[in-house]
Amino acid sequence: TEVADADIPHKCQYTPIAESLTLSHVRQLEERGFTVLEGASAPISGSLLHKAHAGALAIQREEKRFALSTNDADVRQDRVCWLRETDGTPAALVVQDQELARLDEALLHCMRCLRGVAWTLECHQYCCSHEHRVPQQVQLAWYPGDGCSHYGRHLDSCIDPAYEIGLMAWLRANDYRRRSVTAILYLNDPSWDVARHNPLLSPAVVYSSRLPIQKVPCV
After folding, report:
1. How far is residue 208 from each of residues 79, 91, 127, 211, measured CA to CA in Å?
2. CB-CB contact of 41 with 25 (8 Å)
């Protein structure tokens, strides 16, 4: 995750996520370390979810855009790529990104929801972290449905002191040390029966990056 060109939360304000991530969700996040947006609170559903799912599949077919996760193999076995709202437009900073397919409105909605979380937290006076910065890129990840690939228990933030991991490793983890909140939006097939297959894969989850993420099997 790059924070060098990250935005202040105010620049990322987005009304749909502000309407989904309510004050009660934020208080729950402070108390439990995570909150789930589902049902009427889900930031995406219906035809928009259908379109976002199709858009994600279209990007997935561009295999050259994906690489193995840089996490340890026993933590994540997914394929990931990074997206910016400017992909496929003249505003993209890198020529190769200008040549990518332009993202559709459904995926842009998803990205704006994720990037708008920090602003919404600050509006509700979230007290567990402050002075947030929002990277301009978001991660799109997919797992092979092989019954064994999984999202292993891990931290999204580096909290190890320099004397334990060494100064160079500590310096290289600068971006990870600054992570405080993570938001995940699941773009499962709308026909996916969450209750039957995996109740952990709710529409959206926001959690503290400094608490361990539980193992989530992918089937």
Report:
1. 23, 32, 12, 6
2. yes
Count Cα neighbours of 148 within 13 Å in the Cβ-side half-sphere: 2
d(CA 73, CA 66): 16
Please state the φ and ψ torsions of residue 132, each to the nearest 5 degrees: -70, 150
DSSP the chain: ---TTPBPGGGG--HHHHHHS-HHHHHHHHHHSEEEE-GGG-SS-HHHHHHHHHHHHHHHT-GGG-EE-SS-TTTB--EEEEEETTTTSTT-SSHHHHTSPPPPHHHHHHHHHHHTHHHHHHHTT--S--S--B-SEEEEEE---SSS-EE-SB-SS----HHHH-HHHHHHTHHHHT--EEEEE----TT--HHHH-TT--SEEEEETTSPBPPEE--
Q: Can you list the residues of the chain whose pLDDT is less than 50?
A: 199-201, 215-219
Position 106: which residue type?
A
What's the gap between Cα 197 and its chain centre?
22
Percent of the chain with pLDDT over 90: 32
